[in-house]
Write a structure and sequence with these properties.
- It contains 4 helices and 6 strands.
- The chain has about 140 residues and is α+β, with helices and mostly antiparallel strands.
- It has one domain (about 25-140): Roll (Nuclear Transport Factor 2, Chain: A), CATH 3.10.450.
- Strand 4 and strand 5 form a beta hairpin.
Length: about 140
């Protein structure tokens, strides 16, 4: 009898896990869409709201790692000083994998259409739920 009860409870829990994952993925997609919107307004500071505002934030680009929120923001402002350089961003998520209830791993492609010349590449993101919000804690973009 106890096995039957355990099986019923497990069966009932599966939809709850799926619903939770679905909400997490929607929230992550919403956060990333907000980043694209802010970038396309020329608002780098608004784009950065998707990142963890912490000295432990890690950004890895073509010139190597940058540590910390302030340093990452400064890097973006230097690399994209105006809308001729920042252009119009498109981001396509190709994979979202749940690692735990607090972490997701996201893979995707980015492209900038801009006056300074179009560029594109790929990204991998480690996203963590902190204080009820999904934020990027590590970004490797190339």
């Amino acid at each position: 009898m106890s096995r039957l009860i355990a099986a019923i409870l497990l069966f009932m829990a599966v939809p709850l896990v799926s619903l939770s994952r679905g909400k997490d993925v929607r929230d992550i997609r919403k956060m990333m869409a907000a980043q694209v919107t802010e970038w396309n307004k020329g608002n780098v500071a608004g784009y950065m709201k998707g990142y963890w505002e912490n000295d432990s934030l890690l950004f890895i680009g073509s010139k190597g790692p940058t540590y910390g929120y302030a340093a990452t923001l400064a890097r973006y402002k230097k690399a994209y000083p105006d809308t001729d350089h920042s252009g119009t961003l498109t981001s396509t998520i190709t994979s979202i994998k749940k690692l735990s209830h607090r972490y997701y791993f996201v893979v995707g492609k980015w492209a900038l259409q801009r006056k300074a010349g179009d560029v594109s590449g790929s990204y991998t993101l480690l996203i963590r739920k902190i204080k009820g919000e999904w934020v990027i804690v590590a970004d490797h973009s190339s």
